[in-house]
């Protein structure tokens, strides 16, 4: 992360609050990119020669790298050729797959899911019959209009809150739900909370990459706006090797994994955070940050036979696996 000018992007944590270190940083160390009061930190471009001096500052508790974060690709199998293939299907343990979790419930109505990703396209399953994109913030290109130049964020939004509108509209969707309550979400490609609203925060670029500082800035936005939009859930389908925050190169993360610290802070505000485990399996302990936080719900993959694929990251203990791998890739583009 060093550049030709001899600077390094870092995240500096105050022992008390950002006000305590702001002026000192501006006068002595570098330019502030973001202020993150929810974790008492500043994202700063610092001259490398001053790094050792910063560490000795009595008001600074920790420093970590502003490392690159990437999306976690969604492995999928299309069901569009036979949307009724799930009906009655059972796995090796003789349990029905994809049993509906929203039959008879509110389906997320009134709740907003924040998604930090590559953005969101106005897919009909999200904006019809009512537009449920209640907020959009672009930390990459500062656009005011929702867009997704990669597709990953739109896909994730569909998994979370797609309502199956493109299957034939509300009448058809409700008819299928009545006829096949345990399989409706598979047949019509419906998300887990098909009536929930979406707050899309674009912090990854057109290749699905971004900086930790942009992810944290998006988290700060959630902290500032969760009451306004009733954000109860945050999804992070992204990750990074936890050792990437090592600023000394000694193999340790200096006890300052910024993504975990950010996730923990939001959980303490009452927000449920769902994080992808990663695609670095099958070795134990291969979960990426921020899925390593003990306070978040870290979710891996399971295929149509109820088996965990080798690529899905594992924790040191058994974690809950989702059927993320089996969702169709219908959310990649808008109609």
Percentage of β-strand residues: 15-25%
- Coarse structural class: alpha/beta
* Domain count: 2
Q: Say what the CATH topology of the largest domain is.
A: Rossmann fold
Keywords:
335 residues; alpha/beta; Alpha-Beta Plaits; 2 domains; four-stranded antiparallel sheet; 21% helix; elongated; serine-type endopeptidase activity; protease; S8 family serine peptidase; Peptidase_S8/S53_dom
Commentary on this structure:
There is one protein chain. The protein has helices at about 20-30, 50-55, 125, 150-160, 170-180, 185, 210-230, 260-265, and strands spanning about 5-15, 30-35, 40-45, 60-65, 70, 110-115, 135-140, 195-200, 210, 230-235, 240, 270-275, 295-300, 320. The protein is built from 8 helices and 14 strands. The strands form 3 sheets. Strands 7-8-6-10-12-13-14 form a 7-stranded parallel beta sheet, with helices on both faces. The chain has a 4-stranded antiparallel beta sheet with strand order 2-3-1-4, sandwiched between helices. It has a 3-stranded antiparallel beta sheet with strand order 9-5-11. It is of the alpha/beta class and about 325 residues long. It is about 20% helix and about 20% strand. The chain has 2 domains: about 5-65, Peptidase S8 propeptide/proteinase inhibitor I9 (Alpha-Beta Plaits, 2-Layer Sandwich), CATH 3.30.70.80; about 70-325, 3-Layer(aba) Sandwich (Rossmann fold).
Layout of strands and helices, then pairs:
Blueprint lengths: L6 E8 L3 H11 L2 E6 L4 E7 L3 H5 L4 E6 L2 E4 L40 E6 L6 H4 L5 E6 L13 H10 L8 H10 L4 H4 L9 E6 L6 E3 H18 L1 E6 L1 E2 L18 H10 L4 E5 L20 E5 L19 E2 L13
Parallel strand pairs: 6-8, 6-10, 7-8, 10-12, 12-13, 13-14
Antiparallel strand pairs: 1-3, 1-4, 2-3, 5-9, 5-11
Helix pairs in contact: 7-8
GO molecular function: serine-type endopeptidase activity
Protein name: S8 family serine peptidase
Family: Belongs to the peptidase S8 family.
